[in-house]
Amino acid sequence: MILLHYISYGFPGGDLLFNHISLTIQPHTKSALTGSNGMGKSTLLKIMAGEIQPLEGSITIKDDLYYVPQMFGNFNNKTVAECLKIDKKLDALQKITEGEIDEEYFETLNDDWDIEERSQNALYYWGLENLKLNQKLENLSGGEKTKVFLAGIQINQPEIILMDEPTNHMDLKGRKLLYDLIEKTDAAVVMVSHDRALLNLADTIFELSSQGIDTYGGNYDFYAEQKAIEQEALQNDIHAKERALKKAKEKERETLERKQKLDARGKQKQEKSGVARIMMNTLRNNAEKNTSKLKNIHAEKISGISGDLRNLRTSVKNADQMKVIFNDSNLHSGKILITAEEINYQYTSENLWKESLNLEILSGDRISVKGSNGSGKTTLIKLLMENLQPTTGKIIRSDFTTLYIDQEYSMINKEISVEDFVQQFNEGALPESEVKTILSRFLFRKETWDKKCGALSGGERLRLLLCGLSVSNTTPDMIILDEPTNNLDLQNVEILTESVKDYHGTLIVISHDEIFLEEIGIEKEITL
């Protein structure tokens, strides 16, 4: 069990990331933390894991805990055994088997006599049977590093498992192994992930937002349904407030017009009856005061309704307003864009693929490129884009335009400002005011326009790129997406999905996210 009581956390010199968060994780439950990028999901998970300390509040953990981090840079100089925290046990077991009888070794081993066998079985489960426990982590791929830490679940057999984006860089086979492990485990699980298949294994969703934390009993699909109902209710509230605001403004106008007419009639009567000038001035001042008081009453009411309306509108999901409307490609459907004949590539002296590839890509194709980690998916894309030349075979390309988006959004110059990047797409010479309006539509407010692109998060870079495409009046003939949903929160995945699924050009996608591939209408597969 994990008990968080009034936890607060913030960065030095900045605002609080979250304030007075309370949360209970019961034994044997499977929970997921969701929320927009920057809300502090990973930070809250690190606090649970004891990696960082909160500014305020208390933490109670009553069971053994195991943490799978998202980033592995701090572990590169450690061995696999050290990362799994079994190095001392393995060393003690070796000393004992060599005849050492020091009591310290027996205490360290703690009767865990099958630790070595269990470790090998766990690595075999994840397809890492050739991995040595004394091997350094730095030589492994991103997917292999993740699998090492996931193997630690079976090795350490904890009662609580914390996982931060465990399917990032993970191939489809690895994901399925993880799903199976989570379904069968009796441990309490808390995960941060954008993988909807994994989130659907949860029985509770905790949504972290600027207002705090909300609990939804059920898996991600249930949570999404409840959010849709909430959004519909929110839209109804917005429409009601809009009607109330319109009515309040009409009431203000009618009341002031009626008051002005009454004041005018009163003035005429006073003038006809010969009221003294000094009394006339007094009556006029009183009338002006009453009018001003009346205006203030209505202004206060209108301001209150406007404020409520503004707050409601900021709560509305932004996926629809950030959707890119692409023009149709100028290429006719079915035109042959790329023909690859018997191609292969060598990084060393061996071919990357056992069998050379033959491919034909037509205009309008929607293709996913699939394969396990290290199968050469990104290499194939580089060959098709002519960034690499095949070692054997040939590639024939017709004339067409391509937009390549990788998971790091490397086409974005980190040294220029947000506004300058978007202006690079302004071939149609849109007025500066219109470009800034589009920036605002993609949630880039005035104070962010001068911000360097290098300071943006992954989700912000996605929005910036989509913003640039909205400014542009040129639609690429082909869009290539290389693991586009990695490091994106669910809202940004939805924004990307809504933009891509209505794109009518040629689409090539590397992704292990089966739900994303289904939603964007993939029709063909290249399996490596």
For the largest beta-sheet, the strand count, sense and barrel status come to: 6 strands, mixed
> If you average the pLDDT, what whole number results?
82
Give the helix/strand class: alpha/beta
List unreliable stretches of 5+ residues.
none
What distance separates the N and C termini? 43 Å
Instruction: List the total number of helices.
Output: 16
Percent helix range: 40-55%
Give the total of beta strands.
Answer: 17
What strand order characterises the main sheet? Answer: 5-6-7-3-8-9
Strand content: 15-25%
Q: What's the gyration radius in Å?
A: 31 Å
Global geometry = flat
Defining traits:
flat, 528 residues, 16 helices, 42% helix, five-stranded parallel sheet
